[in-house]
Amino acid sequence: MEPLHPELRQALKDAHPGLADEDIDRLEELLARRFSLDPETQTAEISRLDTEAAELQQRLMPHYREVTTAFAQQRITRLRAAEGPDVEIRIKPQDDRPPA
Going residue by residue through the chain (100 aa), what tens digit of pLDDT does each one get? Predict the structure, then answer.
């Protein structure tokens, strides 16, 4: 699992006054551990980690989903703008070629 983008971390802190990097680190740790487990054999541990992560989000980051969704939308918009407009290159047939 990839760490949260620094701008997303800042957006979370802006939306949740008092939120510390350690709180975000804890959530990342829980999510990383959850996705490293085998869902067929470690369901109890996965459930425990999911519960702990949900409680942490609800208690310290109640706007987590809204912030992450808005951040993702902004990134998509920025990437599309950076790509520039779609360009189609057409090659004009040359009539002056000798027949084959």
Answer: 788 999 999 999 999 999 999 999 999 999 999 999 999 999 999 999 999 999 999 999 999 999 999 999 998 888 887 776 666 778 877 766 666 6
d(CA 76, CA 9): 17
Q: What is the pTM of this model?
A: 0.73
Sequence-separated (6 or more) residues with CB below 8 Å from residue 77: none
- How far is the C-alpha of 23 from the C-alpha of 39, rounded, in Å? 26
Question: Whats the size of the chain, residue-wise?
Answer: 100
Q: Which of 56, 58, 75 is nearest to 8 (CA)?
A: 75
